[in-house]
Backbone:
């Protein structure tokens, strides 16, 4: 999916790591929520409350889920993070992403 229709966008940005990671929340008519964001090059650790689908739409990213080895996405790819877990990422370039919250 390359575009979303019939959505509401929250005006205030989500800003993390001193502005190196930012996103905007979008809300759908059915109550689902996603964030569209950008990561500047760097290493970051995130925590989840809900299962997340991380859809990388551009950039070079390495990610590590708990108990797993590092994996790489170069360009485009998707990975899933279980609820209530911490995961690490290394953005080796500017990374464009869409995060979908599953089961919220």
Residues:
């Amino acid at each position: 999916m390359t575009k979303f229709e019939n959505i509401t966008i929250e005006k205030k940005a989500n800003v993390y790591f001193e502005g190196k990671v930012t996103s905007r929340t979008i809300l759908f008519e059915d109550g689902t929520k996603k964030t569209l964001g950008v990561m500047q090059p760097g290493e970051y650790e995130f925590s989840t409350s809900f299962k997340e689908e991380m859809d990388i739409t551009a950039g070079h990213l390495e990610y590590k889920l708990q108990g797993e080895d590092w994996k790489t996405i170069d360009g485009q790819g998707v990975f899933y993070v279980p609820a209530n877990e911490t995961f690490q990422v290394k953005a080796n370039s500017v990374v464009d992403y869409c995060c979908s919250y599953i089961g919220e």
In short: The radius of gyration is 13 Å. Residues 7-102 form a domain with the Jelly Rolls fold (CATH 2.60.120.10). The chain has a mean pLDDT of 95. The chain has one domain: 7-102.
